[in-house]
Write a structure and sequence with these properties.
heterodimer, A: 201 residues, 60s Ribosomal Protein L30, Chain: A, 2 domains, 6 helices, 35% helix, elongated, B: 163 residues, 2 helices, 12 strands
């Protein structure tokens, strides 16, 4: 009995510790799919912490306590803590870029060869969410560019539908000049930016 | 004299119409938000176990392929997990006993309009940036009960204790 009593403070401490850790918030930085690591910043009224190395973590008790930098979490630890979420993590969407003959709504021969790949990707993923997005460069007026890139995107949508893809799964939009592959000044021709992007999710 | 009476009646009618209009306006602004469905934010890609959504006051089970709207409260149960892709390719993966709401989602690159405001209420999350993270990272705000996460084009995991 005495031995049990002497162990009591230890158990109480253990209980307190586990209670604390369950109230603790943890944010851990992971590498992107291409291996690069960005940065995250956590802030509340008590302070701000930035981490920018793989596995670096931030812990914080509540909005009333200052966030702190925590020891680096190992890959194994990360896998354990976030196992269920990682198991349902969707595949990264796959993008295909299609190019057109200048000023026309006709695909270049190289781009035409990509179409079977797009179709097989849709099948492989059993995709139910496909975006067809028109993009333009910054040569010519914004309105003209928006219209042309929309028309090209619609053409690709119709083409995919003609190949058996359910039209209800495809959403068509245009980013016009707003989402270039290669940023340029206004008025500049840039062949690489005049594209239709098919995103298979 | 007759004309004057007519004039007054007309004036009263106009005032009544104005009052009615304002009453209607107040009614719409009070009741409107309660019934309004949010705009499309993304869809459910992978799902496991018990996952539901609270939308416009009622709870429905979520299934693969279903759309997620702003203001939806996505909830996973003890054995639940769900992977969501937003329209800009942002990915949220949720572990068990997790709650998430996309409060705001604006993705109009053509007009340089971007906004992603998410509330990570509790549970485990894995987040991967999408196109908004690339084009306008400053317009992303991820809120937790303990503070706000800002990101520079990246992936992270978070365990949130909740309130």
């Amino acid at each position: 009995m005495k031995r049990i009593l002497s162990a009591l403070p230890f158990f109480i401490l253990l209980l307190l510790l586990s209670a604390c850790s369950s109230r603790q918030n943890v944010i851990v930085l992971l590498p992107d799919s291409d291996g690069t690591v960005g940065a995250i910043e956590f802030s509340n009224e008590k302070g701000t912490v930035v981490v920018d190395e793989e596995g670096e973590a931030i812990t914080v008790g509540s909005s009333k306590s200052a966030p702190k930098e925590a020891p680096v979490m190992s890959r194994e630890e990360i896998k354990q803590t976030f196992r269920e979420a990682l198991e349902v993590e969707p595949l990264l969407p796959k993008s295909f870029l299609l190019y057109f003959k200048t000023g026309k709504v006709i695909l270049t021969p190289e781009s035409e060869q990509l179409v079977p790949e797009i179709l097989s990707e849709i099948k492989k993923r059993q995709s139910d969410n496909i975006s067809v997005i028109g993009h333009s460069d910054r040569y010519g007026s914004k309105t003209y560019n928006f219209r042309l890139s929309t028309r090209r995107a619609e053409k690709i949508r119709d083409f995919l539908v003609s190949k058996g893809v359910d039209a209800a799964l495809i959403d068509v939009s245009s980013h016009g000049e707003g989402n270039p592959l290669i940023p340029t000044k206004d008025g500049v021709r840039e062949q690489k930016n005049r594209r239709v992007e098919v995103v298979v999710r | 004299m007759k004309n004057v009476i007519h004039f007054h009646e007309h004036k009263e009618r106009v005032i009544m119409q104005k009052i009615l209009f304002f009453l209607l306006l107040i009614l719409v602004s009070v009741v409107g938000p309660v019934f309004a469905q949010g705009n499309l934010a993304g869809s459910v890609k992978n799902i496991k176990g018990d996952v539901s959504v609270k939308r416009e006051g009622s709870v429905h089970p979520l299934q693969k392929g279903m759309k997620i709207y702003t203001e939806d409260l996505v909830m996973t149960g003890k054995t639940g997990a769900v992977g969501i892709i937003l329209q800009d390719n942002t990915i949220f993966s949720l572990g068990p006993e997790t709650q998430l709401t996309i409060k705001e989602f604006v993705f109009i690159p053509d007009q340089s309009k971007f906004s992603l405001l998410a509330k990570m209420i509790k549970g485990t999350f894995v987040y991967i940036s999408g196109v908004i993270g690339k084009l306008a990272p400053e317009s992303i705000q991820l809120e937790t009960p303990a503070g706000t996460i800002a990101i520079r084009g990246t992936k992270f995991a978070a365990k949130i204790a909740g309130n």
